[in-house]
Amino acid sequence: QVRLVESGGGLVQPGGSLKLSCTVSGIEFGLYHAGWWRQAPGRQREEVAIAHMDGRRAIASSVRGRFTVSRDDDRGTMTLQMSSLDPEDTGVYFCNRYPPLWPWGQGTQVTVAS
User: Fold this and answer.
1) Is-contact 24 34, C-beta < 8 A?
2) Cα separation of 63 and 90, whole Å?
3) 87 phi-psi bin (left φ>0, alpha ψ -120 to 50, beta other)
4) Which of 48, 45, 43, 40 is nearest to 64 (CA)?
5) Is residue 31 exposed (0-12), middle (13-18) or buried (19+ Cβ within 10 Å)?
6) Residue 48's closest CA among 33, 38, 34, 40?
7) In Å, how far from its chain's centre is CA 86?
8) In the 8-state DSSP scheme, what is residue 89?
9) Contact 2, 101 (CB under 8 A)
Protein backbone atom coordinates (compact mmCIF):
# COMPACT_ATOMS: atom_id res chain seq x y z
CA GLN A 1 0.00 0.00 0.00
CA VAL A 2 1.32 3.43 -0.92
CA ARG A 3 2.57 5.58 1.94
CA LEU A 4 3.43 9.27 1.74
CA VAL A 5 5.63 11.01 4.29
CA GLU A 6 6.21 14.75 4.08
CA SER A 7 8.91 16.52 6.07
CA GLY A 8 10.94 19.70 6.27
CA GLY A 9 8.32 22.19 7.38
CA GLY A 10 8.77 24.69 10.15
CA LEU A 11 8.61 28.31 11.19
CA VAL A 12 10.38 30.75 8.92
CA GLN A 13 10.48 34.52 8.66
CA PRO A 14 9.07 36.31 5.61
CA GLY A 15 11.61 36.24 2.84
CA GLY A 16 13.13 33.03 4.12
CA SER A 17 13.51 29.62 2.51
CA LEU A 18 12.53 26.04 3.25
CA LYS A 19 13.00 22.74 1.50
CA LEU A 20 10.26 20.16 1.83
CA SER A 21 10.73 16.47 1.16
CA CYS A 22 8.29 13.75 0.23
CA THR A 23 9.08 10.07 0.51
CA VAL A 24 6.87 7.61 -1.35
CA SER A 25 6.90 3.93 -0.46
CA GLY A 26 4.84 0.89 -1.38
CA ILE A 27 4.61 1.73 -5.06
CA GLU A 28 6.85 2.43 -8.04
CA PHE A 29 6.96 6.20 -7.83
CA GLY A 30 8.51 6.66 -11.25
CA LEU A 31 5.34 5.48 -12.98
CA TYR A 32 3.28 8.44 -11.80
CA HIS A 33 3.06 12.18 -12.21
CA ALA A 34 3.29 13.71 -8.74
CA GLY A 35 3.06 17.01 -7.01
CA TRP A 36 2.58 19.21 -4.00
CA TRP A 37 -0.57 20.70 -2.56
CA ARG A 38 -1.13 22.98 0.41
CA GLN A 39 -4.00 23.85 2.69
CA ALA A 40 -4.19 27.06 4.66
CA PRO A 41 -6.47 27.38 7.70
CA GLY A 42 -10.07 27.80 6.60
CA ARG A 43 -9.25 27.33 2.94
CA GLN A 44 -9.46 24.51 0.44
CA ARG A 45 -6.46 22.46 -0.52
CA GLU A 46 -4.76 23.96 -3.55
CA GLU A 47 -2.29 22.68 -6.07
CA VAL A 48 1.20 24.15 -5.77
CA ALA A 49 3.54 22.31 -8.12
CA ILE A 50 3.45 19.26 -10.37
CA ALA A 51 6.43 17.16 -11.45
CA HIS A 52 5.49 15.13 -14.50
CA MET A 53 7.20 11.85 -15.30
CA ASP A 54 8.57 13.27 -18.56
CA GLY A 55 10.38 16.11 -16.86
CA ARG A 56 7.74 18.80 -17.35
CA ARG A 57 6.98 20.99 -14.38
CA ALA A 58 3.85 22.99 -13.64
CA ILE A 59 4.01 25.67 -10.96
CA ALA A 60 1.02 27.58 -9.61
CA SER A 61 1.07 31.24 -10.56
CA SER A 62 1.01 32.27 -6.89
CA VAL A 63 4.41 30.66 -6.27
CA ARG A 64 6.01 30.74 -9.71
CA GLY A 65 9.54 32.05 -9.59
CA ARG A 66 9.80 31.26 -5.87
CA PHE A 67 9.12 27.52 -5.66
CA THR A 68 10.87 24.70 -7.50
CA VAL A 69 9.81 21.06 -7.60
CA SER A 70 12.10 18.14 -8.29
CA ARG A 71 11.88 14.39 -8.10
CA ASP A 72 14.21 11.41 -7.77
CA ASP A 73 12.42 8.36 -9.11
CA ASP A 74 15.19 5.98 -8.07
CA ARG A 75 14.86 7.08 -4.46
CA GLY A 76 11.10 7.55 -4.53
CA THR A 77 11.40 11.11 -3.32
CA MET A 78 10.25 14.55 -4.33
CA THR A 79 11.28 17.95 -3.03
CA LEU A 80 9.78 21.41 -2.99
CA GLN A 81 12.34 24.18 -2.68
CA MET A 82 10.63 27.33 -1.44
CA SER A 83 12.20 30.77 -1.32
CA SER A 84 11.05 34.35 -0.73
CA LEU A 85 8.38 32.96 1.53
CA ASP A 86 5.39 35.11 2.36
CA PRO A 87 2.84 34.75 5.19
CA GLU A 88 0.34 33.75 2.47
CA ASP A 89 2.42 30.58 1.99
CA THR A 90 1.50 29.39 5.47
CA GLY A 91 -0.28 26.06 5.53
CA VAL A 92 0.08 22.32 5.63
CA TYR A 93 1.91 20.97 2.59
CA PHE A 94 1.10 17.58 1.13
CA CYS A 95 2.48 15.45 -1.66
CA ASN A 96 0.56 12.99 -3.81
CA ARG A 97 0.41 11.57 -7.26
CA TYR A 98 -1.17 13.78 -9.93
CA PRO A 99 -4.10 13.74 -9.98
CA PRO A 100 -4.18 13.13 -6.21
CA LEU A 101 -5.62 9.63 -6.00
CA TRP A 102 -3.44 8.15 -3.26
CA PRO A 103 -4.42 8.42 0.41
CA TRP A 104 -3.12 11.71 1.79
CA GLY A 105 -0.24 11.70 4.26
CA GLN A 106 -0.02 13.82 7.40
CA GLY A 107 1.55 16.73 5.61
CA THR A 108 4.16 19.10 6.96
CA GLN A 109 3.33 22.45 8.53
CA VAL A 110 4.89 25.59 7.08
CA THR A 111 4.44 28.80 9.02
CA VAL A 112 5.75 32.07 7.65
CA ALA A 113 5.72 34.75 10.32
CA SER A 114 8.01 37.35 11.83
Assistant:
1) yes
2) 12
3) alpha
4) 48
5) exposed
6) 38
7) 16
8) G
9) no
DSSP 8-state secondary structure symbol assigned to residue 103: P
Strands 10-12, 108-112: pairing is parallel
The pLDDT score that the predictor gives to residue 20 is: 98
Question: From residue 37, how far is each of 59, 74, 114 by CA, in Å?
Answer: 11, 22, 24
Which residues are 97's β-sheet partners?
A: 34
Q: CB neighbours of 79 closer than 8 A, spacing ≥ 6?
A: 19, 20, 21, 22, 69, 70, 71
Give mean pLDDT, residues 83-97. Answer: 98
Tens of pLDDT, residues 22-68: 999 999 999 999 999 999 999 999 999 999 999 999 999 999 999 99
Q: What percent of the chain has pLDDT over 70?
A: 100
Q: Using alpha carbons, select from 34, 17, 107 the residue that is nearest to residue 75.
A: 34
Please tell me whether residue 31 adopts helix, strand or coil conformation.
Answer: helix
